[in-house]
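Q: I'm building a small set of examples for a reading group on sequence design. Run inverse folding on the following structure and report the sequence directly after it, with nothing in between.
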């Protein structure tokens, strides 16, 4: 377990390896033909507001309800935006450009930047890949080649919790397919998911 804090004492990055201990859950997550791996962005208002109906809901509850890292005990949110990322050979994307997660519809309509409260990435597939590292950059300015960054390998059963309002990207996958689920916690449901 690694934990990095910024100058204000807020958690910027947490990496937890071997996060899920339930072998049955890991096995169900590994079915890349199942509903879990369907493309598209979804919204779930959380187990306190609506039932756990899908495998994604079950995983979100596992991360943020049952096994919530102690740094986030008591965290509140309006719900969870979630989507899968399949990058690599034969997929739509080989990499993910530098960006910040934000309410895209609100930004397109008003130019206003509203960011998620917390970002989460989990790797549920024991994939054999080269490349595909998550890069989280320091600072508010658009990154250059000299910008310091954390570079995190896409390791099986690894959970990453980070500030998704920071610049970040996914390096090019040069072999295999990178499988991940991204989960953002929001104080207010993004416009595009209403």
């Amino acid at each position: 377990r690694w934990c990095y804090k910024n100058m204000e004492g807020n958690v910027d990055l947490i990496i937890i390896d071997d996060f899920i201990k339930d072998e049955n859950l890991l096995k169900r997550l590994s079915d890349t033909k199942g509903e879990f791996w369907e493309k598209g962005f979804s919204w779930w208002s959380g187990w306190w507001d609506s039932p756990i109906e899908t495998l994604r809901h079950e995983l979100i509850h596992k991360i943020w309800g049952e096994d919530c890292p102690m740094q986030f005990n008591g965290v509140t949110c309006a719900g969870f935006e979630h989507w899968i990322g399949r990058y690599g050979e034969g997929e739509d994307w080989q990499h993910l450009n530098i960006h910040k997660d934000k309410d895209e519809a609100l930004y397109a309509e008003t130019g206003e930047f509203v960011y998620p409260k917390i970002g989460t990435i989990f790797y549920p597939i024991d994939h054999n890949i080269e490349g595909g590292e998550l890069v989280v950059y320091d600072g508010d300015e658009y990154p250059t080649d000299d910008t310091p960054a954390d570079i995190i390998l896409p390791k099986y059963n690894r959970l990453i919790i980070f500030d998704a309002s920071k610049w970040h990207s996914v390096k090019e996958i040069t072999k295999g397919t990178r499988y991940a689920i991204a989960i953002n916690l929001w104080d207010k449901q993004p416009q595009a998911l209403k």
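The two ends are 35 Å apart (CA to CA).
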